[in-house]
Amino acid sequence: MSQPSLKHLTAKSIKWNIIDRVSSQILYAVTGIILARELSREAFGLIGALTIFQSYALMMVDSGFSYALIQRKRPTETDYSSVFWFNLLIAGILYAILWFCAPLIADMFQGDARLIPLSRVMFLSFIINATAIVQTNRLMKQMNFRPIAITNTLGLIAGGAVGIWLAVTGFGAWAIVWQTIALQGVKSLALWIYCRWWPQMALSWKALRSFFKIGGNMMMTTFLYVTFQNIYSFFIGNRVGLVQLGYYTQADKWSKLGIASMTQVLSSSFLPALSEVQDDEERFRRVVTKMNRFTAYLLFPCMIFLIVLATPMFHVLFGTKWDASIILFQLLLIRGIFTVINTLYNNYILSLGHSRAIFWLEVLRDGAAVVGIVLALPYISLSTYDNAVYGLTILLWGQVAASAITWVATLAVTARMTKISAWSYVRDLLPYMISSLVIGGVTWALALTGMGDWALLFSQGAMALALYLGVNVMFPSRIQRDVAGYLTGKNREI
Question: Is the distance from CB of 90 to CB of 203 less than 8 angstroms?
Fold first, then answer.
């Protein structure tokens, strides 16, 4: 029997990646909604504090070796076994350090002693995760994503069931801790069963050293990313309190669902197409224009309409418990607009082979974010009678400003490297931004009618969608026709 072609394997991989992402987000959302209703704000703040250290531990356990293994054309069994035992060794050492440092972690967050036992249990999850990193890597190397999707789903179902049961029976923050343990435990066990690979009793330092060049660079990049993602949680928990951190954690979690999905689409779908036409300047320009407009067509209505719908959506999903998170959620969505556009521009730069520019733009982004945090620190703990997160809104407005500055710099670099004027990029965005803002304003006016949350959510959502599609029909949008063509199978080319 002939081996499947690379094209076939790639198509199959994409299919299962999509299935994995969609099913994971649905399960994640359902579990998150129930937990948000059952658990206190403080419970989420406690877990948000621990997540900071969890993220760094997960990064260091892998050490960037997974990427290095995938990059290596023919890794040996010794390579796989060495990485397995090294990951497990690092996980054990890190857990021991964090176990003894648990009181110090509590001291960082206003001396809350509840963090000590919570951390010592929750941090077991990255040891469990370490046992299945190589198994996942082997399946990815084989372009066999079906087992990965299935095991992720099984883990989320098991973790969700445990978390929900413990939440409704009154275990508080422990519900999320054991949800995490159950998720990683079931997922790792299933990967062992599916992969059917056992490590050799071998640890080759020579093999490990060969991975450090690629793995080390990837770890440093990941370190910057993890720091940037968690720096807000640290300052909020340290300077303000765990209740406010809970508000921020909820807003951040739900805003990331849409933003992460859109950036994933841009990175996985657009970059290969751009690479195909990078040597044809005129065709590259046409593809860039179409991608600009396609992104704007989806991005602005999604983000702006979510901002408008935020209040009734939060009330329908969570009741009024998380009202203080709404303004944070809206500000994070505004920042997310710049994040998505910058990701798009990064793809243009990367497709032309200018990866070094991406690094320096990332440094600029992180630097601008840090400056924004420093300027907001004197105000971060402010609150009013009717706004418990007043200081946090100041912090996030600063981050919106930092993101806007980064967008301007990224636009300038992109225009220079692609030889397409900055005004052309802006011109591609404006029609969709303006129409979305106008429709968003009209839709928001429905909130003045005093209708209930369910009716308001449905009415605003239906009106926003109908008006947006209608406007793009009245003022003929080629992108909308193209999207319709893709969905009906009539148009399959960029």
Answer: no
Of 186, 208, 235, the last residue of a domain is: 235
For 28-60, the DSSP string reads HHHHHHHHHHHS-HHHHHHHHHHHHHHHHHHHH
Q: What CA–CA distance (Å, rounded) separates 411 from 241?
A: 37
Are residues 9 and 72 part of one domain? yes
Neighbours of 458 (CB within 10 A): 14
Q: What is the mean pLDDT of residues 273-301?
A: 79
What are 46's two structure tokens? 């406690």
Which value, in Å, is the radius of gyration of the alpha carbons in the chain?
24
Angstrom CA distances, 189 to 24, 184, 195, 196, 476, stand at 18, 8, 10, 11, 53
Instruction: Tell me the C-alpha distance between 187 and 133, whole Å.
Output: 11
Residue 7 has pLDDT above 50, yes or no: no
Same domain for 153 and 43: yes
Q: For residue 441, is pLDDT > 90?
A: yes
Same domain, 381 and 468: yes
Band (pLDDT 50/70/90 cuts) for residue 104 is: very high
Burial 407-417 (b: 16+ CB within 10 A, else e): beebbebbbeb
d(CA 184, CA 366): 31
Query: Is the domain of 183 the same as that of 332?
Result: no
For 90, the domain range is: 1-235
Domain-terminating residue out of 185, 213, 235? 235
Same-domain check for residues 138 and 209: yes
Mean pLDDT of 96-103: 93
* 3-state secondary structure at position 475: coil
| H/E run at residue 202 | none
- Indicate the number of domains in the chain: 2
Q: What is the DSSP string of 416-474?
A: HHHT--HHHHHHHHHHHHHHHHHHHHHHHGGGGG---HHHHHHHHHHHHHHHHHHHHHH
Q: Among the ranges 72-76, 238-242, 344-348, 400-404, which has the highest mean pLDDT value?
A: 400-404
pLDDT, mean of residues 280-298: 83
Through-space distance between the first and last CA atoms of the chain, rounded to whole angstroms: 34
Task: Supply the pLDDT for residue 413.
Answer: 93
SS3 letters for 130-182? Answer: HCCHHHHHHHHHCCCCHHHHHHHHHHHHHHHHHHHHHHHCCCCCHHHHHHHHH
Instruction: Work out the burial of residue 29: count CB atoms within 10 Å of its CB; fewer than 13 is exposed, 13-18 middle, 19 or more buried.
Output: middle
* Same domain flag for 213 and 318: no
Residue 487 has pLDDT above 50, yes or no: no
